Amino acid sequence: MDEIEIVVAHRQRTTLRVGDLFLKVDAHPTRTAVEVRAMALAPVPTPTVVWHQPPVLAIAAVPGRALGVLGEPSPASSAAWAATGAAVRRLHDAPLPPWPGVALDDVRAELDRECAWLLEHAVLPADVIGLNRDIAEAALRPRPPTFVHGDLQLTHVFVEGDEVVGVIDWSEAGPGDPMADLATLTLGHEERLDDLLDGYGPGADRDVIRAWWSLRSLVASRWLIEHGFDPDAPGCELDVLRARAREAGDGRQGGTR
């Protein structure tokens, strides 16, 4: 080992890589505890827990490479995306974990709060925020919960060839909306949705997935800004919101002709 790599560092969490070991230090120790429990229950490949002493979790590196990065084309094959869909389906079909998920009313309240902040700080034009808030409403429907990852970004799925070899960062796992996982994976990568659903199988609702693209982008933008990330980078959250608003606006104009 020649050096320590800082993988991510912000006020809520710092992750360090020391050789083949990742050390995660979380401001909320319960999140690392959830991560350990979720990885033990999930029927998909997960990192090996080396040791856990809150607030620090030590896990082994997983093989392969990430499915992609937000804002850049995914280098993974269609077959790898389909394999990811099949792995996510196994997770969603697994028994629910024995801790509560996020209540639908809390999701709605957070969405309204974040939309108000985006408007107050003029992060985007009011019509873009309003159109996306309307789109997001479709995600706020009552639904039976499933075992979800909760933060299934494509950087959290590792593949080797056409096989999923590791899924990382389980601190948000719990009972939730399966369409949210599918939406998070394809946020900014709409062109990969068909490949993902080929592996996932029946039951996916494309309209709800699209609603979650809007909802997640609206809710995440302030956090990203306040923690030193750029949601306005090409292909990222603010681009997604603009694209969704354009599509919604074009649809409304088409309906009046």
UniProtKB/TrEMBL annotation:
Pfam family, one: APH
InterPro entries referenced in this protein's UniProt entry, alphabetically: AGP_Transferase (IPR051678), Aminoglycoside_PTrfase (IPR002575), Kinase-like_dom_sf (IPR011009)
Keyword Transferase attached: yes
Signal peptide positions on this chain: none
A GO molecular-function descriptor: transferase activity
UniProt entry keywords in alphabetical sequence: Transferase
Coiled coil ranges: none
Annotated Aminoglycoside phosphotransferase domain residues: 38-212
Keyword Transferase on entry: yes
PANTHER family xref list: AMINOGLYCOSIDE PHOSPHOTRANSFERASE DOMAIN-CONTAINING PROTEIN-RELATED (PTHR21310:SF40), AMINOGLYCOSIDE PHOSPHOTRANSFERASE-RELATED-RELATED (PTHR21310)
Identification of the protein by name: Aminoglycoside phosphotransferase
